[in-house]
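so ive been stuck on this for like two days lol. basically i have the seq below and the ligand is S-adenosylmethionine, smiles is in there too. i just want the complex predicted, nothing fancy, no docking runs or whatever. if the output looks off dont worry ill sanity check it later, just need somthing to start from for the group meeting slides
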Amino acid sequence: MKGDDRRYLLAKETVDDRAFDPGVRRRVRTDLAGRSGDVRLLDAGAGTAPFLRRLLDWPDPPDLTYVAVDADADVLRLGRDLTAAAARDRGWAVSDAGVFDGPGETVGSLSLRGESAIDARFVRGDALDAADAGGWTFVLAQAFVDLLGPAGVDRLLDGLDAGGRFSFPITFDGGTAFSPSHEADDEVLSAYHDTMRGDDRLGSRAGRRLERHLGRRGVEFVAADADWAVRPVDGAYPADEAYFLRVIVDTVADAVWGRVPPATRTAWHAARTAQLDDGRLGYDAHNRDVTGRID
Ligand SMILES: C[S@@+](CC[C@H](N)C(=O)[O-])C[C@H]1O[C@@H](n2cnc3c(N)ncnc32)[C@H](O)[C@@H]1O
């Protein structure tokens, strides 16, 4: 990813908000809302933990032990600070919750008391190691599963207790498109998708490969499209979505270095950057929103 990860992840939030499938999100709410007792949720590859802040706005948030695990301590610290501020804004009492009793380094924690009781830990480490520790009732992996292969997906699912639930929103499933069209799009975007290939990764077709894998395991799940769509309105982008789009354009151009002729890459990047600067560039990416339970 080219750019400031923290700013990119925050800029992504409004794009994700439009992308989520309402039916699949309702199912996640039904699985979690109003629950009490020992709900242990692992947010794998949590980034700035946007799920937790969205959950604070539910009318009936569950009592929860929430553990955000990410390889990047800086995004986690930002997530902790934003969540503390959001909780205070909503009138919740905020204090420290102590360290996570599991693999990784706790870089922050929050005890949140309001509509429900939530203990949150922000842990720098490997999300799959945290899953391996087991004892999870819910595993969330948003915009993360496309980095994994089937074995990684199995580690996330195997960390769940019997009857546990999982949610894999914004799982990339190929189909990157920019508008207006450019004569080098086919060459550049096909080379870009090729960079995601690898025996150990679900890659650019992660959504459909994930669903086939779950089907082969006999896992019960629902899934729907959750596509990203970014459009300028009267020559300007909403929220910080111009930054989001700049990171995407730079990332694509960077990824295809050495895979397409230099002149093609330079021309494509220059044209897309100029369209973005002029507020004329549109972008779509195809994702899947997948949630289910294991027996
Ligand atoms: C595309 S971001 C998604 C972040 C967040 N889930 C969201 O949707 O905003 C993927 C995140 O996975 C993290 N990551 C990648 N591999 C990881 C691993 N093995 N264990 C933990 N985090 C990892 C990255 O640091 C990054 O923050």
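The mean pLDDT is 95. The longest strand covers residues 160-179.
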